[in-house]
Amino acid sequence: MQRYTYLKLALKENGLTLQQAADRIGVTKGYLSQLINNKIKEPSAQKLQALHEVLHLEYPPREKNIGVVFGKFYPLHTGHIYLIQRAASQVDELHVILCHDDVRDFELFQKSSMTKQPTVEDRWRWLLQTFKYQDNIKIHDLSEDGIPPYPDGWDEWAIRAKKLLADNHIQANAIYSSEPKDAIRYQELLGVNTVVIDAERSFMNISATQIRQEPFHYWDYIPTEVKPFFVRKVAILGGESSGKSTLVNKLANTFNTTSAWEYGRDYVFSHLGGNEKALQFSDYDKISLGQAQYIDFAVKYANKVAFIDTDYVTTQAFCMTYEGREHPFVQAMIETQRFDLVILLENNTPWVNDGLRHLGSKAKRKEFQDLLEHLLKENGIPYVAITSGNYEERYLESIQLVEQLLNDKKENSDEISRFEDRSE
């Protein structure tokens, strides 16, 4: 880092323009510009001190102790957090480098039990959210595309790492790692002292490989900001009075987790005075958005699985039944918001009129059920039909389906070792 470059960042952080800062310390804007761009060889100590006071900086400036941590964070886990927090406590400023490689990351995903692949943006978000209250932790990313997989490619990797550090004016005093063999290469190739923390994983005995293979087995090692990514979403579908709301409540209680209620019913009371007769075509996009918010909340606080009472297919089916046409916004939600398990209940339970139901005849119930099945198939949504009209049988069958979903995993940990370590 050049001598006074840090003052540029301090100006920005204090929300000051060059002119404002110059006025406060009694110099011209041009002088200050030359100073922070290191064009004045021997600046006035008095003016420097005044500038540091305006920017709330220590003077004379103390050389910062800078640390670096490299990692894939695929996914971020509590072992990573322990390493980062230990490192952050030893330095003034810690730079966390998120390493990503499209080919490698996709292969890791294919050999995992994850139902969707974490994007680079997902991993950025996990880091930013987890450390958002620690100003001394800065996040960067390093593309490793095209570099031979570990344990090869160190020289190419080092060239990119050096460039990243130089481009961001990071003069590291130490690189922190939990991998002794990686620490040796960091020191050799980057010329920076390395510090190994918890190499034996005596405090946090976990790896990203283990979580990718069995996320629910290692649930306690997944950080709060990462857990929603792994939560399985189970949607319970059915027509009016099919028992879906009661079943959702039972399952949520059984699995000690959250549920998302049918937002449409709440909407009728909050926006339509409790009477569906006021419902019109323009309400269905609002209902879908409200349902999405309910789902997001349930997923955020879920314990491995979240149960959803009514999905967007059901909302579309009601729109087509009552309004006679498909709603484009609801259709967009169907196409973009998918669930891990969809259970369709046969509409063969006793009819209960709660004041908001109008499809009580046998013919109307069957017509709506057929429409649900048609929309599911038309949109390519796999589902499991539960046809029993017995409430206990439905409950037990649903439990079995959810347990299968949560226990689904692959046995590929031995096949992916060549991708690990350098930035695991």
UniProtKB/TrEMBL annotation:
EC number: 2.7.1.22, 2.7.7.1
SMART domains tied to this protein: HTH_XRE (SM00530)
Binding site for NAD(+) 1: 70-73, 77, 104, 144-157, 177-179, 204-206
Domain named HTH cro/C1-type: residues: 7-62
Enzyme's top EC category: transferase
A GO MF label: DNA binding
Keyword field: Kinase, Nucleotide-binding, Nucleotidyltransferase, Transferase
Superkingdom of source: Bacteria
Pfam families for this protein: AAA_28, CTP_transf_like, HTH_3
Full protein name: Multifunctional transcriptional regulator/nicotinamide-nucleotide adenylyltransferase/ribosylnicotinamide kinase NadR
Organism taxonomic ancestry: Bacteria, Bacillati, Bacillota, Bacilli, Bacillales
UniProt gene name: nadR
